[in-house]
Amino acid sequence: MTETEKFTISSDQIVEKVKELIHQGNIRRIRLIHNKRPLIDIPLTVGASAAAVTVLAAPILAAVAAIAVLVNECTIEIEKVGEAGEKK
């Protein structure tokens, strides 16, 4: 079961927020959207070890930092993986 969330964030907070989302571990996909157009779509492996995520995240974070320089704010859309028996 997946959930989708969207929130708008300023450019100076984009890289830190993406780092935080990558390390959460239950995120399947992160999309950065500006003016209703996707800028980058980052698929993540659920259940990857923290060491692997850190190594693989470096080029992604470099790309996100480059995008953050070009936009004032953008929307982050995330797909979370929920538990099968989880109740809302």
Gross geometry: globular
Strand order of the largest sheet: 1-4-2-3
Mean of pLDDT = 80
Number of strands: 4
SSE inventory with pairings:
Elements: E1 2-10, H1 14-24, E2 27-34, E3 37-43, H2 50-70, E4 73-81
Antiparallel strand pairs: 1-4, 2-3, 2-4
Helix pairs in contact: 1-2
Quick structural overview:
With 88 residues, the chain is an alpha+beta fold. It has two helices and four strands; from the N terminus they run E-H-E-E-H-E. The protein has helices at residues 14-24, 50-70; strands at residues 2-10, 27-34, 37-43, 73-81.
Features of this protein?
88 residues; alpha+beta; four-stranded antiparallel β-sheet; 2 helices; 4 strands
Task: Give structural notes.
With 88 residues, this protein is an alpha+beta fold. It has one domain (2-81). Helices cover 36% and strands 38% of the residues. The chain is built from two helices and four strands. It has helices at 14-24, 50-70; strands spanning 2-10, 27-34, 37-43, 73-81. The protein has a four-stranded antiparallel beta sheet with strand order 1-4-2-3, with helices on one face. A hairpin with a 2-residue loop joins strand 2 and strand 3 (37-43). The radius of gyration is 13 Å and the shape is globular. The model has no long low-confidence stretch (mean pLDDT 80).
